[in-house]
Amino acid sequence: MKHNKKSANANIPKGILLTAKVLQKLSSDLTVKFAQKLFATPLKHKIPKREFEMEENTIQKLLKIPEIGKEVMVYEYGKSDKKVLLVHGWSGRGTQLVKIADALIDLGYQTISFDAPAHGKSSGNTTLMTDFIASVMEIEKHYGPFEFAIGHSLGGMTVLNSIKQGLQVKKAVIIGSGDSVTDILKDFIGKLKLKAIYVQKMKEAFENELNGDMESYSGYVAAEAVSVPFLVIHDKDDEDVPYRASENIVKHLKQGSLYLTEGLGHRKILGDKKVIETLLQFLAN
């Protein structure tokens, strides 16, 4: 894990690390606010060429999510009464699971995906997983019912929590998902090179805003409350989310199976032929 943290730190702009260092010396309150803003602000990336076809061949509509007062861009891909919900991860977009979507289209499904709040073409600059969940629950009202749900990274935690909150699906697949909100905060604070006490300070600040326990949204906690069959996929060389997270999630699922890969990392896994074949076999059986 030391190697992972070192490489992650190297990707953080020096200006941000310097600001965090200075604020830490000046004010704990300012440090928490700075860290909170960073934590809730996703990066926006240009759509890669591999996603162009899905981008061009989808029906795209903005959908208002009343619970959070934001709009999200929804992508309808293919035409079928059999629908599959796709949920991207942090700093992703609605077309990110294109290879999985294409495979599902070939089998006669329609996929419904979306740009989460503050992602892609959706409104806002900051967001949290609770916004992802609220979006899923509203999308189900307008586009459901769904046969299956598939989520990547934070999208995996979103799928778990959405099913816990009432999303109806027959089966679900999560890929490269985290298991503990506290561990995610610890990793984030470590990357900013802030003192460990800021993990608890950030947790308390977010909980005051959400009026709830952040750890209750953890993947392993949500897993205990769901009963539908789950396929949990993770790569052993994932430097963003350790595969131990998926091992922990499976331990808490009533019907969960684990499929581990090697050499694919956190994102390449989404387009791997063997991974997609395994996913499709699970959904079909």
From TrEMBL:
SUPFAM superfamilies: alpha/beta-Hydrolases
InterPro entries, sorted: AB_hydrolase (IPR050471), AB_hydrolase_1 (IPR000073), AB_hydrolase_fold (IPR029058)
Domain AB hydrolase-1: from-to ranges: 84-185
Keyword rRNA-binding attributed: no
Coiled coil: none
Gene3D superfamilies: alpha/beta hydrolase
Matching Pfam families: Abhydrolase_1
Key words of the record: Hydrolase
Domain of life: Bacteria
Keyword hit for Hydrolase: yes
GO function terms (MF aspect): hydrolase activity
Protein known as: Alpha/beta hydrolase
Source organism of the structure: Flavobacterium sediminis
